[in-house]
Amino acid sequence: MFLSELQKGECGKIIKINTDSVLKARFSSFGIRRGSIAYIIEQTMSKNTIEIRIQNTKIAIRISEAKTIEVEKSECKI
């Protein structure tokens, strides 16, 4: 399952990031790394970006980028 497949209000534990090293480094600077829990806050109306929360950081990423992040659904601990 990919991060892009989660719905608003769901959480997923990041298990793998399938992208180039430049984007991995950018994700890492935001706290998006293996083992992190991502909470889906919102999807835009056009469905081209999603807003997620990793720990206390809110991040908006493109759906195309979210499709490179493999997750397993997990329980949200908000």
Spatial strand order of the main sheet: 4-3-2-1-5
State which percent range the strand residues make up: 35-45%
User: In CATH's first tier, which class applies?
Assistant: Mainly Beta
Number of domains: 1
What are the segments in which pLDDT stays under 50 over at least 5 consecutive residues? Answer: none
Query: Would you tell me which CATH topology applies?
Result: SH3 type barrels
What is the mean pLDDT?
A: 93
* Overall body shape: globular
The secondary structure category is alpha+beta
Could you name the CATH homologous superfamily?
Answer: Ferrous iron transport protein A (FeoA)
Number of helices: 2
Separation, N- and C-terminal Cα atoms: 22 Å
Helix content: 10-25%
Radius of gyration: 11 Å
Proper CATH architecture? Roll
The ordered H/E elements are EHEEEHE
DSSP E strands, number: 5
How is the biggest beta sheet arranged?
Answer: 5 strands, antiparallel
Description of the structure:
- The chain is an alpha+beta fold and 78 residues long.
- A hairpin with a 5-residue loop joins strand 2 and strand 3.
- It has helices at residues 21-29, 63-66, and strands at residues 11-17, 37-43, 49-54, 57-62, 69-74.
- Strands 4-3-2-1-5 form a five-stranded antiparallel sheet.
- It has a single domain (3-74), classed as Ferrous iron transport protein A (FeoA) (SH3 type barrels, Roll), CATH 2.30.30.90.
- It is globular, with a radius of gyration of 11 Å.
- The model has no long low-confidence stretch (mean pLDDT 93).
- It is built from two helices and five strands.
